[in-house]
Design brief:
EC number: 3.2.2.21
CATH superfamily of one domain: Hypothetical protein, domain 2
Largest sheet: 5 strands, antiparallel
CATH architecture of one domain: Orthogonal Bundle
Distance between the termini: 45 Å
Low-confidence stretches: 291-303
Strand content: 5-15%
Organism: Mycolicibacterium poriferae
Helix content: 40-55%
Shape: globular
Enzyme class: hydrolase
Catalytic activity: Hydrolysis of alkylated DNA, releasing 3-methyladenine, 3-methylguanine, 7-methylguanine and 7-methyladenine
CATH topology of one domain: Endonuclease III, domain 1
GO molecular function: alkylated DNA binding; DNA-3-methyladenine glycosylase activity; DNA-7-methylguanine glycosylase activity
Radius of gyration: 19 Å
Oligomer: single chain
Structural class: alpha+beta
């Protein structure tokens, strides 16, 4: 099955900026930036797997072609994915750096996938480990257990596994992918509750985040990372992130701060705290620390 759609925006279209949080590293088997500027993305929709090719056609228009059983559902939800439904009303920051970031990137849009498990499982895999290690784990598991991407997709693309597949992955395969037993149990536990999790898209974002945190192994950071992508939640602040508070402090105050100080600093921007953080990164105004050598993450597959 094939389907196509176009979305016209009131202002410049930025599909790469909106969709980039969905990419889990440069080798993500579910996401590919083509040399011609197109973005290839796979997903497992309610109606089945899909491969989509998304590209900016004009300054304000994005075109999409999709293939597979889930193609029509994907194109039907394309406006939400690209942030056409994102509501930034009331966001008028007075903090100088955030205000400057908004002037630089006035058309930043937060998209929503509507696919909870697809956002939650990679967030669980990314808990408490360096990004490159988590991306490698995700790549290995999806490449091995995902399905071939339908349509004329780039060869390395795979459709992420469904809940029934995640539930059956043996413990030793998580071990080989460098996912420790605690995170593996959380992944399996989330997959066991997949039907209830997918219904969270119908709840207000804050309530959905609280529901996510009721799951064993899912804390504030994981719930926020999931809500940002699945719900397009503009207030889902990633408290507990290894670097975020430091970046926010250096960017807004000129020195590092901790999580509690970050929450206090961004409180006036509620309910757009995540939007404020995204603007910092998208505008180029975020100030990152220079990190020295780190202790290497142990390779569980070799232990």
């Amino acid at each position: 099955m094939r389907s196509s759609a176009s979305v016209v925006f009131a202002g410049p279209a930025s599909p790469g900026l909106t969709l980039s949080p969905l990419r889990r590293g440069g080798g993500d088997p579910c996401y590919y930036d083509d040399v011609d500027g197109s973005i290839w993305r796979t997903s497992l929709m309610r109606t089945g797997p899909v491969t989509a090719r998304i590209r900016r056609a004009t300054v304000d228009t994005v075109d999409c072609e999709a293939w597979g059983p889930g193609a029509v559902e994907f194109t039907d939800t394309l406006p939400a994915l690209l942030g056409a439904d994102d509501d930034a009303s009331g966001f008028e920051p007075t903090e100088p750096t955030i205000a400057a970031a908004l002037r630089r990137v006035p058309h930043l849009r937060l998209g929503r996938t509507g696919r909870v498990l697809e956002a939650l499982i990679p967030a669980v895999i990314e808990q408490r480990v360096a990004g490159k290690d988590a991306f490698g784990s995700w790549r290995r598991l999806v490449t091995r257990y995902g399905a071939p991407a339908p349509g004329p997709a780039p060869a390395r693309l795979r459709v992420p596994p469904g809940a029934d597949v995640w539930r059956r992955i043996p413990s030793w395969e998580f071990h080989r992918a460098n996912v420790d037993p605690g995170r593996a149990r959380t992944v399996v536990g989330c997959a066991q509750r997949a039907d209830a999790l997918e219904r969270l898209v119908d709840r207000p974002a804050a309530a959905a985040r609280r529901a996510l945190m009721s799951l064993p192994g899912v804390g504030e950071w994981t719930a926020a990372e999931t809500a940002q992508r699945a719900f397009g939640d503009p207030d889902a602040l990633s408290v507990g992130d290894y670097h975020l508070a430091t970046v926010v402090g250096r960017s807004l105050l000129g020195h590092p701060i901790d999580d509690a100080q970050m929450v206090e600093l961004l409180e006036p921007m509620r309910p757009h705290r995540h939007r404020a953080v995204r603007l910092l990164g998208a505008s180029g105004l975020a100030v990152y620390a220079r990190f020295g050598p780190r202790m290497p993450i142990p390779n569980l597959a070799e232990m």
